[in-house]
Specification:
The chain has helices spanning 18-45, 52-59, 76-89, 91-111, 114-125, 144-147, 239-274, 286-315, 320-345, 356-368, 373-385, and strands at 131-134, 151-155, 158-168, 176-183, 189-195, 201-205, 218-228, 276-277, 280-281. It is of the alpha+beta class. The strands form two sheets. Strands 1, 2, 3, 4, 5, 6 and 7 form a seven-stranded mixed β-sheet that branches. Strands 8-9 form a two-stranded antiparallel sheet. Helix 4 runs antiparallel to helix 7.
Length: 391
């Protein structure tokens, strides 16, 4: 029987339907038995465990959210719990899965024509084709909306893409990469599906990362990359469409942050019960219990926030500021939690053997991607004041 979530003290998981909970428990067991035992080793080697892709595919969860894929469409609550559960096991695997299903498949689902959705989403849902999402550039991160430098030039029925992308997860082995480029003719940002082996496309693995080391991030160079008009996402007409994708996936990062907090809390709690000093387990000391309760408080408040966010998503009433606030707040609280867990484990907290060191490092990446705390703060600030502080 899969383990229970000791950090879900208010039992938010009980809000799932029986069918959804069965899916979650099946995923939890897969992660516990297949991912957790190898996570540290692949993280240490900066390698991705490609042999796990089939296992993820067999779970049947990659295409649940998309109409072109047969099956029961899940609630946003289930999607959130799945993202949380993956991050609880390994943030690298959560990022791999989120890039594939949220950013890549999400771009095709939202911005592709009917034919494009039918062409790409079913094999992607079976994970026969893996996707990536190329937006960030070497000189463009937070300002990418107005500063996107990658260009697209149309000649007949062929587009030529020129430019560079950076930090593109899955890109070293992806079959399909959704590339965002500015049309030189009208100045608008458009989306293009670049297939593996396309001339003019080069992806080089980024090495020496301190976080999410199993994720295969890449620097991409586009040098006259030829893409047919059939591979241009037909409903991606401006950066507003790109932003719509990010709004949906940003909430997933907030869920991932909760998963990291849960993992850190559970590691610290187990350690406090087992580690003995001064004649007994350290969990009996007041200051240790204070750390644990602060960790649990952060985790519980953030879990409550993302659960409500999922409800707003299912109601169709959530807005940019809802996702932005959740991402900014949850990742900030996550940083505190992993720091307290590392503190509780003392010297043992800095070696991979005790797991928490990996979560401390990976938390830094979650804190930054899908919009920094500062950018998300300005999104919320604009919404609540009616005044833009963007420069």
């Amino acid at each position: 029987m899969p383990e229970v979530l000791t950090g879900d003290i208010y039992r938010f998981e009980d809000m799932l339907s029986h069918h959804e909970r069965d899916i979650l428990l099946r995923v939890r067991e897969f992660l516990r038995s297949q991912v957790v035992p190898i996570a540290n080793e692949f993280w240490r080697r900066e390698e991705f465990p490609v042999e796990l892709v089939k296992g993820f595919a067999d779970l049947g969860i990659a295409g649940l959210a998309y109409d072109e894929v047969p099956g029961l469409r899940p609630s946003s609550l289930l999607s959130g719990f799945l993202a949380m559960e993956m991050a609880r096991a390994d943030p690298s695997m959560a990022t791999f899965f989120g890039v594939h299903t949220g950013l890549a498949m999400g771009s095709i689902a939202a911005c592709g024509s009917t034919g494009q959705r039918e062409r790409w989403l079913p094999p992607m849902s079976r994970m026969e084709q893996i996707g990536a999402f190329a937006l960030t550039e070497p000189q463009g991160g937070s300002d990418v909306a107005g500063g996107l430098r990658t260009t697209a030039r149309r000649v007949g029925d062929t587009w030529f893409l020129d430019g560079a992308k950076r930090w593109i997860g899955n890109a070293t082995f992806a079959d399909l990469v959704v590339v965002w480029a500015r049309d030189v003719e009208d100045g608008h940002v458009k989306g293009f599906v670049v297939e593996r082996g396309t001339p003019g496309f080069t992806a080089t693995k980024i090495r020496n990362k301190m976080a999410l080391r199993s994720v295969q991030n890449a620097d991409i160079v586009l040098d006259g990359c030829r893409v047919p008009e059939d591979n241009r996402l037909q409903k991606a007409r401006s950066f507003r469409d790109t932003a719509g994708i990010l709004r949906r996936t940003r909430s997933g990062v907030a869920w991932q942050a909760v998963g990291v907090m849960l993992a850190a809390y559970e590691i610290a709690l187990d350690y406090a019960k087992e580690r003995e000093q001064f004649g007994g387990p350290i969990g009996r000391f007041q200051l240790v219990q204070d750390l644990l309760v602060r960790m649990l408080g952060n985790t519980t408040s953030c879990l409550g926030m993302v659960v409500r966010l999922a409800q707003l998503q299912d109601e169709g009433t959530y807005r940019d500021e809802h996702s932005a606030l959740a991402k900014a707040y949850c990742t900030t609280r996550m940083r505190e939690v992993v720091g307290w867990a590392r503190e509780l484990l003392a010297g043992n907290g800095i070696v991979l053997d005790y797991d928490i060191g990996r979560f401390v490092a990976d938390a830094e990446a979650l804190y930054s991607y899908e919009g920094t705390r500062e950018i998300n703060t300005l999104i919320v600030g604009r919404a609540i004041t009616g005044l833009s502080a963007f420069v």
